[in-house]
Amino acid sequence: MDVDVAIVGAGPFGLSSGAYLKSKGVGIGIFGDPMSFWRDHMPAGMYLRSNWPASHISDPGSKLTLDHFKAETGANFEKPIPLQQFVNYGQWYQQKALPELQRTQVEKIEKNGSGFKVSLEDGSLLKTPRVVVATGIAHFPWMPREFEGKPKSHVTHSSDHKDLSRFRGKQVIVIGSGQSALDAARILRSFGAEVEIVGRQKEIRWVGQNAWLHRLGPISWCLYSNFDVGPAAISRLVGFPNLFRRLPRSLQDPLSHRAIRPAGTGWQKPQLAAVPMTLDRIVTSVDIQGDRVKLKLNDSTERIADHVIVATGYRADVSRYKFLDASVTQALRTDAGSPVLGRGLESSVPGLHFAGKPAAWSFGPLLNFISGTHFAASELLKAF
Ligand SMILES: Cc1cc2nc3c(=O)[nH]c(=O)nc-3n(C[C@H](O)[C@H](O)[C@H](O)COP(=O)(O)OP(=O)(O)OC[C@H]3O[C@@H](n4cnc5c(N)ncnc54)[C@H](O)[C@@H]3O)c2cc1C
Questions:
Q1: How far is the CA of 108 from the centre of ligand 1 (A)?
Q2: By alpha-carbon position, which residue is closest to atom 24 of ligand 1?
Q3: Residue 369 pLDDT more than 80?
Q4: pTM of the complete model
């Protein structure tokens, strides 16, 4: 075998997994474009929603934190963390921990006896007994079916944008009422676009409104973990993924939903005060009319705009991984689009592991966030 494990992906989960496995002497191959999703699929002008302690990419010696990055490079920033600084931090982490990373895409993963054959974009082939899929959410953008198949000139997903300045002076409708929608609306407005938010929630939920709950000493400690995922009490529970996954599914699903339901970071509220928000509405039809797009809402009103940005999030669906060969997917047990994982984040295909969002169905909402990298990497080690 060429390597003990092939890690597919170089975002927070791939990098952290690689650093931990390497520190234990496991022979790794790691492939991907470091931090590409953050660099190319999030809008310039965005700030991280996670707080400082929840935004370190975990490393085995705790020597590659945001604080170490700042101290070593002289980068000057505080919370909320600017997107570009986080991209720089991830790339710095990669150069420090995993200089051997190959900036190439994995094109195919096939079964090969008891292991796998991995084909790379540059034409080379690799044999390995284990693969970790850590390709993030880029494969999973989701939009309501009314918007599907519309031309990108008129309707795009929030993940299609890294530079919203092209909408300067345009009329743009943003669909959604979570952080991505609010980020897009705030940044569009800063470029002088005329923006309206249309969302199906009854109201915008703002996080950070109960700051006093974090100042109660030991009581706060009982209510909140440092992972910054979920409200009081649920925050503690999701911090123990191996406990969370033993709960009945009828509890896990509502708790997960409650932990990651759409919400906006409170500091944005004043900057969005002048943005019209039409809430408690859904879009019933989308028509392209020349260079404009017409929406009908379920209150029988209409909107006409230059462009619609659909910021309705991501849904895990492993059938969208074009790189997984049928020889693998046929044996892969899934539920609600996610692989069903056990100890070591291992799937029903022996030796095939998943980290990040696809692991959240099995291990809970922590696995959607940077702060889940510590758990994911430590759990992976159990398989080696
Ligand atoms: C707008 C937005 C804001 C967010 N803000 C936060 C936040 O503030 N805090 C937080 O904790 N989480 C945030 N998240 C969630 C965030 O996406 C995850 O925390 C994080 O990106 C997960 O890391 P990852 O390593 O799983 O995936 P990613 O960061 O998406 O990395 C995926 C990697 O896989 C690589 N890749 C993909 N396909 C292949 C292939 N075929 N071959 C090789 N490589 C491949 C890519 O090049 C990339 O390197 C945000 C998400 C969005 C959409």
A1: 20
A2: 136
A3: yes
A4: 0.96
